[in-house]
Automatic annotation (TrEMBL), chains A, B:
This is Stimulator of interferon genes protein. Keywords: Endoplasmic reticulum, Membrane, Nucleotide-binding, Transmembrane, Transmembrane helix. Residues 1-186 form the STING ligand-binding domain. GO terms for molecular function: 2',3'-cyclic GMP-AMP binding; cyclic-di-GMP binding. Belongs to the STING family. It is found in: Cytoplasm, Perinuclear region; Cytoplasmic vesicle, Autophagosome membrane; Endoplasmic reticulum membrane; Endoplasmic reticulum-Golgi intermediate compartment membrane. It comes from Mastacembelus armatus. The chain holds residues 157 to 342 of 409 of the full protein. The keyword Transmembrane applies. GO terms for cellular component: autophagosome membrane; endoplasmic reticulum membrane; endoplasmic reticulum-Golgi intermediate compartment membrane; Golgi membrane; perinuclear region of cytoplasm.
């Protein structure tokens, strides 16, 4: 079952490597980006992981919502992996405006394995189509939640945000969702 | 079935993105590394992908065989992916000595998804153990072979090398295997 394996892969090959270092990366970032430092919400020093139910992933968040702007990248993490010397792991910081125009900075990205689910649903030889894809996204989400709940090294360093497609017509739907989750923490 | 999804993930999220650019990266590398340029075998301008049957992956090839040395990395490729701005994709060039001490340069790495298969086989909650892992590696290899056979954009830009564990006691087993595959091409 594809989604189960992709959730494990996302944990073993990415979240388990990067989440323990995230706090230090953000601290280093705020030291070199003093304008940003006050804009980090209490409890927003986590990786926000967007999981759209329709696996419809954008490569640039600002294309989804003009209240979101790319700000800068966190410092690179270099890790030797499977023969690749100094493989680079990085995250992007986005500036999100609320309805009063106040800016909030945070680290957010889509769950990359959903791109694989999407591509597979378009390739007939891969073995599943669009109807199964939604189900696979939910399995991915639940499996990932369970793995992360049991991971001591990742505790409190992430937030999984399942995006339903009910707000797809709201041009500021994504920023509102992100802000709601930022304010929920602690 | 986990290996099936990991093979698709490896293709959709990596090989399909990097293999079409590989030739140009190697040309650029040889222009800036003139000592290396004559050491590339005819037809070795491919990514050699190592698939050990026991999923036992090393992060540094030189630790497996002292006839192999890390030489340098190819130039970075930066691609915007799923909200990460300028995500870096790179490959490492290794210098491999044959039994006459002659050097051959090539781009080689392990198939990273095997690290996930290995980790999952160690975590009881993941649902499979060491006996199934070998079978999963074979499914990964065959699925990947089939996907790549049907991929026009990746044609002739890679070589899958399945490593059996029969030569594990030969300290130069890996370099000999790599050289045998390099000489096979064209
Ligand atoms: N957002 C994000 N940033 C990253 O740097 C990153 N690195 C991995 N992942 C995701 O974690 C999981 C585990 O990664 P793994 O390396 O085992 O498999 C990877 C790996 O085998 C290969 N691959 C991808 N990027 C690279 C890379 N830069 N170098 C080598 N191999 C790579 O192709 C597989 C699928 O990649 P993605 O489909 O991008 O998603 C991966 C995957 O779901 C990332 N996700």
């Amino acid at each position: 079952n594809v989604a189960h394996g992709l959730a494990w892969s996302f944990y073993c090959g990415y979240l388990r490597l990067v989440l323990p270092r995230l706090e230090d990366s953000i601290i280093e970032f705020c030291a070199t980006h003093q304008a940003s430092a006050p804009l980090w919400a209490r409890g927003s020093r986590r990786l926000l992981i967007l999981i759209p139910i329709n696996a419809n992933i954008s490569h640039k968040l600002e294309e989804e919502d003009d209240n979101i702007r790319f700000y800068d990248n966190l410092p690179n993490n270099e890790i030797n992996r499977a023969g690749v010397r100094g493989r680079v792991y990085k995250h992007s910081v986005y500036r999100v405006l609320d309805e009063h125009g106040k800016a909030h900075d945070c680290v957010v990205e889509y769950a990359t394995p959903l791109l694989t689910l999407y591509s597979m649903s378009q390739e007939s030889s891969a073995g599943f189509g669009e109807p199964e894809r939604r189900q696979q996204v939910l399995i991915f989400y639940r499996t990932l939640q369970e793995i992360l709940d049991n991971s001591l090294e990742c505790r409190n360093r992430y937030k999984l945000i399942l995006l339903s497609d009910e707000h797809e017509d709201d041009p500021h739907g994504l920023s509102k969702t992100i802000l709601r989750h930022l304010q929920q923490q602690e």
